Amino acid sequence: MEYGETMENIEAAALPHEITTFNITMTAISAFMRCIAVIMNWCLAYDYWLTESYAYCSWTILSILLPMILTSLIYSNVLIVSSLGKKPLIYTDLFWKLVLSYLFRDAHTLNWAFKYNDAKKRVDKVAEIECYRRHLKEECNVGFIRLFDLFLETAPQKILQLAIVLRYVKSLTYLRALTFLIYFISIAYCLVAYNRSNRLVQLDKYDIGTKGLVVQFWFLLCLSSSRTTCIAYMASIYPTETCAACCLHVLVCANVVFVLDTPKFGICAFLNYILCLGFGVVYVFIFTPVSDAPTKYKYSIYLSFCFLQNLVVCIIWIPLQISVLINVLYMTGILLMIYYYLKCHPGITSAIF
To answer: What is the pTM of this model?
Structure first.
């Protein structure tokens, strides 16, 4: 998808949906949880420091700072592009928007949702449509940024924690098990929300139905859980080699995306490549399309490649029980994905998915 073109299309759009109380509630919860997550991440790094686990502390801080810089670059680019030709850019205003965005990703989305409700109560149709469009823009942008938050910031920390548990099984507590469950659910939920928001801003596409959302959630949960478990186990026995292999995977995927998809998101080629690196990290765990085009062959190549990776790693290094879990989850995810595109994909036949 070309994000600039998508945003321009919204300007001429009619109001296709409403912002419900449930949407507002979920956005408010998301905004609050983002702030809590930031605090917990820094507390975790401090806890590692107190226990003299300096390698763990460094890894945690790196997984906080690097995504913060990357997402700030991407979001600042979004703000700069959206203000081109409208009004002069005030850099202090941009700075505070970036700070607010880091702490409360959904703050602007929530603000436009409240303004939409106010306009609806006043029966001001023009303001209602304008607030809806701005809400949809911001939701799409934030969903885009949240994708990188999840895979650049949260995923490395959860892999570290899961690797510690796999190395020292007695360190698994009910609280840690709960955080892993929440993490895996968050991955699937974030990707479902990202995919749905991308469809909503493309006027020629139908929304995903409830059945489709449920099936999509489960196949994304299976695929991402399988990959995370596989990587975490390898990190528990060969941390340096696993990190190097993941970096190689990121670079290969980033260059393929940069050459084949040629995203036009940024105002320069450097920012476009930074974006591709971000997607490269995402592709360590799961595939999500960069451009709006048929994805059948991309999914086929990516899933085959990752399944082959999992299979080789499981045969050589991973115990049988965990190997079975990893591969069953991945195959279940692939089967559910095929079912989704055959039976649940809205408005598009399975021949061109």
So the answer is: 0.78
Cα 70 from Cα 273, distance rounded (Å): 11
In whole angstroms, what is the distance from residue 203 CA to residue 192 CA?
18
Buried b (16+ CB within 10 A) or exposed e, 74-83: bbbbbeebee
Q: Which two tokens stand for residue 53?
A: 């686990």
Residue 201: the pLDDT is: 66
351 three-class SS: helix
Classify residue 352 by its DSSP letter: G
Which structural domain, as residue segments, surrounds residue 330? 3-352
Nearest residue to 157 via CA among 176, 170, 144, 171: 176
Q: Which two three-digit tokens encode residue 69?
A: 């810089």
Say how far residue 41 (Cα) sits from the centre of its chain. 18
Q: What is the DSSP letter of 85?
A: T
Q: What is the pLDDT of residues 36-76, one digit of tens each?
A: 777 877 888 888 898 888 888 888 888 888 888 887 777 77
Q: Which of 40, 256, 282, 44 is nearest to 143 (CA)?
A: 282
- Residue 297, burial from CB neighbour count under 10 angstroms (0-12, 13-18, 19+): exposed
Which pair of structure tokens corresponds to residue 30? 């998301």
Q: What is the DSSP letter of 204?
A: T
User: How far apart, in whole angstroms, are the C-alpha atoms of residue 10 and residue 315?
Assistant: 49
Quickly tell me which residue has 């600039």 as its tokens.
Answer: 4
Q: What is the CA radius of gyration of the chain?
A: 21
- Residue 329 predicted with pLDDT over 90: yes
